[in-house]
Amino acid sequence: MDISFRKIDVDAYDEDVLLETELYDPDPRDPQQVIDDAKAKAASVRTSLAKSDTLGALVTVLDNPPYGSNVEEAKNLTLQTIVTVLNNTKATDIPNVVKSLSSEAQDTLMKYLYKGMGLPGWGDVSGSVLLGWHEKLTEVAGTGCIVRAMTDRRSV
Amino acid sequence: MAIPEVYNISQSPITSHSFNADRTQVAVSLNTNEVQILSRSGADWTPVETLSEHDKTITSIDWAPKSNRIVTASQDRNAYVWQQTPDPLTGRTIWKPTLVLLRINRAATFVRWSPFEDKFAVASGARAIAICSFDPDNNWWVAKQLKKPIRSTVLSVDWHPNNVLLAAGSADMKARVFSAYIKDVDKRPPPSVWGEKLPFNTVSGEYSSPSGGWVHSVGFSPSGDALAFASHDSTISVVYPGGPAIYTIRFNSLPYVTLTWTSEDAIVAAGHDCQPVLFSGGPSGWQAVGSLDDTTAPKSASGARGASTASSPVGRLNSAAFNTFRNADSRGLGSSPGGGSSLATDTELFTVHQNTITTIRQYEGAPGAVTRVSTSGVDGKLVIWNVNTISGLGTKLSGLRVG
């Protein structure tokens, strides 16, 4: 997601610049392992979905998501996997699924909802599905969850 | 239920407030470059004196209870210490400023006296904290700066009861504990959970919450053995360095920007949610207890009509702008100039404060047994709360979890 609105790089003139990567702890995994993990999760999510276990699928994919730089491929694959889960959930099931998630998983899900909304038309991202989830998630986790999705520098 | 004391001080935001020792006077800054000293007269506060020396907006005020001195910090990169002295011309007692040599090149953001009132710390946007002590030879206050490893604006500081350690919350997402030991002022502090040998600028701890966010407020517990901080990811965290353990409470509403410990096992925090919330816990865990504010009904009688339309329980989604747009959408109510009166009631929040609370301070009670706290905020109100009055867990607090 391109969220950079600054066109002039004012930091180029600052010898003591604070870099984006200094604001969060880096992922301890190396990039190759991150992509392997993402692929393994995608496979396990397909298995869960075949058994129509939406919650299990969502818990799996939201655990330990890829973040930071150099893992674009894993990030895209994870978003794709999550979108598949979201699209395959009946609207009436959403509130219960959202309530059963841990607060950490709720925050991660919120990050992916916003990432998805920032990419209209990407893959099979559907705005109306994301907004439906967003409404239910906000009812459960509140504005605090949205604030955390916006604040967290570990962007997914 | 004890009703909080509410004072409407001004129409403009109150950037900072600080009471004197016997709470008969309060120093406030109303988002200007002047400090107003208000004196209690019956059920009201009347201005008695104006302290003007700063060029730009005052960001923080602290009134030392024992030595009766006021220190102010401002965006003009200066701090002044104000002391009551007789005016040589008229003989009246006036507040006289003394300059502080801060040597910072950005705004001063926050100031606090040390517990023994022989030092104070000024946080600043210059990625530094100035630790100031008095130089009697020159009759001014000199500063020594804490710089490393601060990477951004320092937003708040808090002193450890031993007068040496200082906690700082910063916009680089970190809460840190520093040693602010000044050789000629301080005696060697006894060893504590934060370390034994503590020369100036020792970093005794560096903490952040899992999802980051500017650290708006920091506070040592009354014993000094625990540290709490509130950050902009809608969490508060409590650190026990001896444990070692960090408890982070995520909550459902908007971030808190200010907090204070009322006892060794209780914290009151407030912020964008417009209401002070009590947390309780100890070395084994923390949880939210409830709001000090009764948010079940609007505070003014005229606001009652708003209740029927306000059903969303989600934080400030149930706010003026939200309701305005929802009414415009579902009922075709526009914000036409003539229709202002019908919407006026909908802009009232159910909380006492009608906008963000920016400062919370201990008002009454010894450290560790605080019975009342005072808050001020963007709505120009000054409110004094009884910390033992909890209006139960509201619906929005029931979802709080310790993560």
From TrEMBL, chain A:
Coiled-coil region list: none
GO cellular component terms attached to this protein's record: Arp2/3 protein complex
Main location (coarse class): cytoplasm
InterPro entries: ARPC5 (IPR006789), ARPC5_sf (IPR036743)
Alphabetically ordered keywords of this record: Cytoplasm, Cytoskeleton
Pfam families membership: P16-Arc (PF04699)
Subcellular localization, as worded in the UniProt entry: Cytoplasm, Cytoskeleton
GO BP of this protein: actin cortical patch organization; Arp2/3 complex-mediated actin nucleation; regulation of actin filament polymerization
The protein's role, per its UniProt record: Functions as component of the Arp2/3 complex which is involved in regulation of actin polymerization and together with an activating nucleation-promoting factor (NPF) mediates the formation of branched actin networks. Arp2/3 complex plays a critical role in the control of cell morphogenesis via the modulation of cell polarity development.
Similarity comment: Belongs to the ARPC5 family.
Protein name: Actin-related protein 2/3 complex subunit 5
From TrEMBL, chain B:
Region annotated Disordered, chain positions: 289-312
Domain of life, per lineage: Eukaryota
This protein's UniProt keywords: Actin-binding, Cytoplasm, Cytoskeleton, Repeat, WD repeat
Localization annotation: Cytoplasm, Cytoskeleton, Actin patch
One matching Pfam family: WD40
GO terms assigned for molecular function: actin filament binding
Compositionally biased residues, Low complexity: 300-312
Major site of localization recorded for this protein: cytoplasm
InterPro entries for this protein: ARPC1, WD40/YVTN_repeat-like_dom_sf, WD40_repeat_dom_sf, WD40_rpt
Keyword Cytoplasm on entry: yes
Keyword Cytoplasm assigned: yes
One biological process term in Gene Ontology: Arp2/3 complex-mediated actin nucleation
Segments annotated as WD repeats: 51-83
A Gene Ontology term for the protein's cellular component: actin cortical patch
Gene3D superfamilies: YVTN repeat-like/Quinoprotein amine dehydrogenase
Protein task: Functions as component of the Arp2/3 complex which is involved in regulation of actin polymerization and together with an activating nucleation-promoting factor (NPF) mediates the formation of branched actin networks.
Protein family membership: Belongs to the WD repeat ARPC1 family.
Protein name: Actin-related protein 2/3 complex subunit
Taxonomy of the source species: Eukaryota, Fungi, Dikarya, Basidiomycota, Agaricomycotina
